[in-house]
Amino acid sequence: MTVLDALQAALAGEQATVYAYGVVGARLEGGPDEVSARSAYDAHRQRRATLTGLVEAVGATPTAAAAAYDLGGPVTTATDARALAARVERGAAMTYADVVAAGSGSLRSAAAAWLADAAVREAGWSGTAPTFPGLPANPAR
Amino acid sequence: MPRPLPDRAELGRRAVLGAGAGVAAGLALAACTGPSGPTTPTGAGRDPDAAARLTAAGTEQRLVASATAVGEHSRGAVGARARAAAAAHRAHVVALLDGLATPSPWPTATAPGPTGARGLAAAQARAAASYQAMLAGLGSRTAELLASVAGSDLAHAAAMRAALR
Known about the structure:
The complex is a heterodimer. Chain A is mainly α. In chain A, 69% of the residues lie in helices and 1% in strands. By secondary structure, chain B is mainly alpha-helical. In chain B, strands 2-3 form a two-stranded antiparallel sheet. The chains are: A mainly alpha, B mainly alpha.
């Protein structure tokens, strides 16, 4: 995977994640997790902007966002919303792992920090810290 | 039509990392830190990826010991978090040593690990920072493994701190 491919995949993931957090935030509004949802939404919007800039910086056209995303089912309860948030963080971590692998220097460092941020957020939403965020369940197998 | 959220298949993730053998033997070798810091087997110093994996494995092995001790002496959420962390750190050691040649002989562990749940969380955060600082110059597979282990360690530290509140 080239650096540009990895960046475009991460950008596509961020676009989906921002969309998903819009749904998550609406469901958690007024509840104890509202602040966490808003913080995550803002962080991912910022990261989407960063990735867009990185793609543009190499002269490529950033992957466009879809009008809507299939969230895998209805998000009707706070439990649904937390599960969706954990799932999108898990997915985001995978795209960041690819950027770590493909990138170098400051990009690799930034992607590693993003991966860690996604792992921490996933743990916050799911209650379980991931063992290998961004990688297959057990990379030694 | 709505676009599905990206998942592993869509993103074209690669096959699993690493290849195979020597894990069980390597587990006994991870606790290889002397008073002056991690030691490396003959040849590992010339291979930055192997050296980084061995250094991280030694750190993770100490975290296994610390998390196990906290898990044995703590109840409730703190104990549960510590036991989960011990299992994760153990899996990290296995993954970090996977595919590395088995050196011999190896020194036994002498450096003490952190004590207490707060000490464990602090040590996990320090470990994560140290792995992230190692990434420059490493091969892609080692870099993403170390980044993943760092993320896991930070998540476990955050979970422990949440349990302590």
